[in-house]
Amino acid sequence: MINKLLSTLVIFLLMNIAWQANAIEPMSDKTIFNNGYPESAQVTSLRLDFEALGFNNYKLDGINNDSNVDFTNRIDKLSKDLMLNFSYTNSPSLIANVSHLKVYFNENLVTVLSINEPSNIIKNTAEHNIALNAKYIQDFNQIRFELVGYYSTSCQDYFSRAIWVEINKSSNITLDQTSLAIDSKIEYLPEPFFDSKDYSKLTLPFIFSGTPNEEAIEAAATLSSWFGAQADWRGANFPVVLNQSPNQHSVVFITNTSKPAFLADYPDVEKPTIEIISNPIHRYKKILLILGRDEKDLKTAVNGLVFGHKVMTGRSVSIEGMNKIPLRKAYDAPRWLRSDRPVHFDELIDYPTQLQTTGLNSGPVKLNIRFAPDLFTWREKGIPITLQYRNTPEDDTLSSRLNMLINQEFISGFLLEKNDSTVSTTKTLLPLIANTDSTQSTENFSLNGINLAKRNELNFDFRFDVLKNATCTGAPLGGEYGVIDGHSHIDVSNFNHYIALPDLNVFANSGFPFTKYADLQQTLVILNENPTPKALSMLFNLTGHFGAITGYPGHRLTVKYLSDDINYNDKDILFITKPSTRSDKLKEDEPKNILLNNNQRAIKLAIYNGAYDDNKAEKIQINVTSSGNMAVITGYQSPFSSQRSIVSLTATTNEAFGLLDNALMNSQSREQIKGSATIITTQGIETIKTDKQYFVGQIPVHTLIWFHLSDHPFILALLSILTLLLISFILWRLLQALTYKRLAEGDK
Questions:
Q1: What angle do CA 295, 299, 303 make, to 5 degrees?
Q2: pLDDT digits (tens, 9 = 90+) for 194-210
Q3: How far apart are CA 485 and CA 420, in angstroms?
Q4: How far apart are alpha carbons 336 and 322 in whole angstroms?
Q5: Segment 65-111, tens digit of pLDDT
Q6: Rounded distance, CA 338 to CA 489, Å?
Q7: What is the distance between the alpha carbons of residues 576 and 593, in angstroms, rounded to a whole number?
Q8: Structural contact between residues 100 and 65, judged by C-beta atoms closer than 8 angstroms
Q9: Are 177 and 76 in contact (CB under 8 A)?
Q10: What is the dihedral of CA 43, 48, 53, 56, to 10 degrees?
């Protein structure tokens, strides 16, 4: 609710944005950019394999007799010549003249296929190529297979294993897509640059006329985090291009004094401005222009776009002014479970019927939840959940159940009530995964459970039993409903925030500690002067990843070059550099020198697998620039604040930034990034635990003492004895004082 109020507040704050919409009569000197140069529409042939579309219900039977495969159509594409190519094998027990397979396209019956004769089934499978009518295509499309299977002409058991048809995994859909020249309208945003109907990874080039300065990088990082939040689980890639014309949908950052060659004659602006134009070279591709008099205007334009695009219309918008956007509070990211109160399930849903399931085996109710990664779960058995559910009534002899799973692993099950007039309520725990590198490691938790560093999928699977009569039963009655009540809730409000760092797995999967504040208000990014396009692309991909984690644009990120005058205090630092960066000419106590020396030490510790000794540094020399493409990720405590962290991303060559990028953006590679240092080469990823742990966060004093001494029982026992002696001494002195007082009163 708070997040919705904040979003509404932001919209109201932006209502004083004034824009000039030129969609009907654009300026005469911009006419050339309205539609681009005439060219033939590009036609692309696609093959959509069932497996790539996430189809997994290949086997149909008497109960689970239908299966769906879904695909989408982008706003800027026209699909035609659709062909469904599939094959299947059916049970030899099915009767050919009455058993059949129905095929639907968006609930329009396309064809009915008779089941093959048993004699043919032994030799081969049944193959079909079915043309689909393009007039039925929508934004979201579904092909549905429905089996009508009989093995007996009298009566039959629909649960019989003799009824089955299995669709071949090599089945696919082929189609041709023609590019469409859609209107250049800001109200379409984020389309066509990001289309929610496209399930593939977002690739959106960022184009500059030359190497951008710090404010331009901040603007681009904010925009990448917003697009990353839109892309969410798809992932996002933001290649940086300098002074080159794009051949796909892209974003171009322009100031009055810095324009790429292909837009060199584009008119100057008087205010921060957002425009959408057709690519002057590729008509069917759009360019999102971020315009300003200078780089400061670019930041204003981007902030206006990410917070006010829903109330913008036309082809061009100018930002007259903008009130200050409220600061985000710690741990209040829209996609994180709130830690200040219980969170109800109806706050976590994406569509109204998400908490309801219909039919015997229609799939589980699914919820995606992400926790703050620094929840202090030491000696906790799990996270409390109050589950409320209801279901249709059933016969007293049946034993239907509700199974609860986390990340596809079974946790617990409950028998369903026979009476539908009451809501069943149960209190249980979501178990936690043990992590040997964090504060959660002291207790041996269940191997199946919540991983605080990642997004978790919580499944509630209703399994309805069916009453059978003798050896033959009719079809199930249908109408089975299971509902998880929206007032069910998860409560982490009693957990403190305290975590052992460095933990690069937590950084790679949750962006912590930088994402503690969703707007990145306490994040400082330090770059070498003149960063390369690959280094900038890696940064923008990382901020896009942060946006996907938090669901909020990181518009308060601070970017500095190493040569700048930097305030290092009270900041979590992301240091993107090369190992050749030295500090020879700096004073020993200068903050910049302290940062560089700590970074060099962390890199050497990683390379020497923790064997590096500062006191023997002269005996160990290495020129890492000569070792080819290698990248190092290190984490260590900030020398400027004990509660702050530094994560260093170091690449030996420009190409090595690609190694860093691939490792951080690939979910399988992120699993291998752990500990306090990770070395990445073309041969793989090696994790090293080097630096000592430090702790960030706050817990009660007694818990703090107990936690840190729990691995030292003798010290803990000695401390307990000393505490008892101290308490005994205090009580003795108190009783002695009372005795003296009574004696003194008696003498009177």
A1: 165
A2: 999 888 899 999 999 99
A3: 13
A4: 28
A5: 889 999 999 988 999 999 999 989 888 888 888 899 999 999 999 99
A6: 11
A7: 16
A8: no
A9: no
A10: 170
